[in-house]
Write a structure and sequence with these properties.
The chain is mainly alpha-helical. The protein has helices at residues 10-28, 33-54, 58-71, 75-91, 95-108, 115-136, 139-153, 160-175, 179-190, 196-212, 216-232, 236-252, 256-272, 276-292, 296-312, 316-332, 336-542, 548-572, 582-597, 608-612, 616-637, 673-684, and strands at 600-606, 641-649, 652-659, 688-693, 699-706. The longest helix has 207 residues, at 336-542. The chain starts with 9 loop residues before the first helix and ends with a strand. 32% of the residues are buried. It is an enzyme of class 2 (transferase).
Length: 708
């Protein structure tokens, strides 16, 4: 079983104790009202700092304590704040700073008038000094401070100051191997029910001692009992330490696997909670088991981790044990040079511990010697002061003679002063004359400045309107240039629109003219030539004379000629949709208009064959709608691209027309004749129209027509 187990729970309870001590102070004080009020006022501020420590806000508590120690006036407050700072450095394992502030607090308790409060605060300071030495491995020094802490409050009612030092003393006996006294005092601590942390610490350490004594059933009883309590209270130090002790119990009985599990649990909690002392001990215990299992490299790593912590926080006793173990590992690895160096460091640390123990005793004797010296110096000063009183009496007569001499000198000085006054008066007169000359010159300079300023202001008064007029004229000219430019652009756009409109009309007129001419020729052929041939055919058919074969041949030629003329007349009719070519006809029209208007046109139709077979009335109306859309785009949108999509999905004929023109706002757009005609044609077909357009982003016309 390792001998590194120690109590880590004193300080959080210690803070609550000091807060209660503040209350005792108010009850027992017998001083002036103002001093009492000041102490009460300062108490509220130190209490708030204690609360920060209790809530694990150490950095805020440290900053507030450093600030208040400069502001608060009473000795009681000064002692409390130094104790807070000592506790802060205990948490950080900075033992030199911890001892410095604890000694400072102990020294300042001597000036506290209230005897009860003085004893309580002094006992707390002794406890901090004992803990600092405990962590350094200076157990005899720690024992001495705990005994002083118990002694100073022993005659009072036994409360927290008594039991916290008694607990620390039991801890030291445990480390020194005096288990009988350790068990005795820890069990006495269990009688104190007002602080859970003392109860927790006593259970943990009793478990450790019974483990040392190989009474594992008793040990695990105390450890398991306190472990469950610590988990309920989220006390990570307690959880880590109880797991550590149970691991040591299992190690002692040779169950290394179970021991390592508890050690790993303890190490994980210690790392998360920054419990460096426990972390160092657990690393050593794991290293010890790995060493027994001859896993020397792994063991060495854990001991090095423990050494890093022990060096960082000046844990001398742990450094000594770690160096010894690392030396043994080096010997097994045949690294005798490292073993020698480690043994040297072991000896140095061991000597350092002994020297520090002796230095503390020497320092105490030195303090007593210096105190005696100061008392002797005070006696010497008193004697010298009495001699000085006699000398002063003898010097009084000498002073009277000196006063007479001073009176004579005073008269002489008065005469000299009169002479000096006359000289001064003359100089004052001269100075006044010089001042008048200076004032006259300053008035002339001021007048010149005023004239200069008037000239400058007059010039500015004239200059500012001129600049303003110039600026207004420039702005008007600039605006006129912009207006002329805009008018020119508008007129150019109008001319372009007129030209496009004329071109569109010419294209339409050309197409309409061709259609009319074709219709006229077809009618002529059909009505005149076709009619005549039909009549001849009829007569020949009904004729009963001549040669029948000849008549049949002529009849056949006439019939062939009639069919040819009929075919020609049908071909001359306008190419609408009578030959299932609607898509091709629309594409031809679109390309012709696009070519004349210098725009790019695209057409996609799917499926073409089914679209071409749609009812002629629907296709005719659709064709007129497409014509109107293309016309509007050319006239109004000024587009460079148009795209037409024709889709037939089940019984729905979809026409999507898109351009990249200037677009328009749908809400503010008034329907013209063209758009009105489009909507009317769509309504006649029971269709729907959706328009999507925004300025400068073109327009999309989505038309859907049901096919019954």
């Amino acid at each position: 079983m390792s001998n590194y187990i120690s109590k880590f729970f004193i300080f959080s309870t210690f803070i609550f104790f000091l807060s209660n001590a503040n209350g005792q102070e108010v009850k027992n004080k017998n001083i002036t009202l103002n001093q009492e009020n000041l102490a009460i006022l300062e108490k509220t501020r130190t209490d708030a700092t204690f609360d920060l420590l209790n809530n694990n806000e150490e950095e805020k508590a440290y900053a507030e304590a450093k600030r208040l120690i400069k502001l608060l006036k009473t000795k009681e407050s000064n002692v409390r704040l130094n104790i807070i700072l000592s506790y802060y450095f205990n948490k950080k394992t900075q033992l030199d700073s911890m001892s410095f502030y604890a000694n400072k607090a102990l020294k300042n308790t001597e000036a506290i008038a209230n005897d009860s409060l003085r004893r309580i605060l002094a006992s707390s300071s002794y406890n901090l000094l004992a803990l600092s030495n405990n962590k350094r491995g200076l157990f005899e020094a720690s024992k001495k401070y705990h005994l002083k802490g118990i002694e100073i409050v022993e005659k009072q009612k036994k409360g927290y100051p008594y039991y916290v030092n008694l607990h620390g003393l039991a801890n030291i006996y445990m480390k020194l191997g005096d288990f009988t006294n350790a068990i005795k005092y820890f069990k006495q601590c269990l009688d104190y029910k007002e602080d859970s942390e003392i109860t927790i610490g006593s259970h943990v350490n009793l478990g450790a001692i019974y483990g040392f004594k190989k009474e594992y059933e008793s040990s695990n009883y105390y450890l398991k009992k306190i472990n469950s309590l610590c988990k309920e209270q989220n006390n990570f130090q307690c959880q880590s330490l109880s797991a550590l002790n149970m691991g040591e119990n299992y190690e002692d009985i040779g169950k290394h696997k179970e021991a390592l599990e508890y050690y790993e649990e303890s190490l994980e909690i210690a790392k998360k909670s920054e419990l460096y002392g426990i972390e160092s001990i657990t690393n050593q215990n794991i290293g010890r088991i790995l060493y027994l299992q001859k896993r020397y490299e792994e063991s060495k790593l854990y001991f090095l981790n423990a050494l890093h912590i022990a060096l960082a926080y000046n844990l001398l006793n742990q450094q000594k044990e770690i160096y010894l173990k690392l030396k043994e590992i080096a010997v097994y690895q045949n690294d005798y040079q490292s073993a020698y160096a480690l043994m040297t460091r072991y000896s140095e640390v061991k000597d350092s511990i002994a020297k520090m123990q002796n230095d503390q005793d020497i320092n105490e004797l030195d303090i007593k010697f210096k105190t005696l010296q100061k008392e002797n110096e005070i006696k010497d000063l008193t004697f010298k002061n009495n001699n000085k009183v006699l000398l002063l009496k003898n010097q009084e007569k000498t002073i009277e003679n000196l006063n007479l001499q001073k009176a004579i000198e005073k008269k002489q000085n008065e005469n000299e002063l009169l002479k000096l006054k006359e000289i001064t008066q003359k100089k004052v007169t001269q100075i006044n004359l010089l001042k008048k000359d200076k004032q006259i010159k300053e008035s002339e300079i001021l007048r010149e400045k005023q004239v200069r300023n008037i000239v400058i202001i007059g010039f500015l008064v004239l200059l500012i309107p001129i600049i303003a007029l110039s600026f207004v004229y420039y702005q008007k000219q600039k605006a006129q240039i912009l207006i002329n430019k805009k008018q020119k652009e508008i007129s150019e756009q109008k001319n372009k629109a007129i030209l496009k409109d004329q071109e569109l009309k010419l294209v339409k007129a050309e197409i309409e003219g061709q259609d009319k001419e074709r219709i006229r020729i077809a009618q002529e052929l059909h009505d005149s030539v076709g009619g005549n041939l039909a009549a001849i055919k009829l007569q020949l058919t009904n004729s009963s004379y001549g040669k029948e074969n000849e008549i049949k041949r002529i009849n056949s030629q006439i019939n062939e000629t009639y069919n040819q003329i009929r075919s020609i007349s049908h071909n001359l009719l306008p190419k609408r949709f009578n030959l299932n070519n609607f898509c091709e006809f629309v594409e031809e029209y679109q390309n012709k208009v696009a070519k004349s208007s210098n725009i790019k046109a695209y057409l996609s139709a799917h499926p073409r064959e089914k679209i071409n077979n749609i009812d002629e009335k629907i296709l005719s109306e659709t064709y007129h709608i497409i014509q109107e859309l293309i016309t509007n785009t050319i006239k109004h949108a000024h587009a460079t691209n148009i795209e037409l999509q024709l889709n037939l999905i089940e019984n729905l004929f979809s026409v999507i027309f898109e351009d990249n023109g200037k677009g328009f706002t749908i809400e503010n757009n008034k329907d013209g004749i063209g758009l009105t005609n489009i909507k009317n044609r769509i309504n006649n077909l029971n269709g729907s129209l959706h328009i999507d357009s925004t300025p400068n982003r073109g327009a999309i016309f989505n038309i859907e027509i049901p096919i019954l």
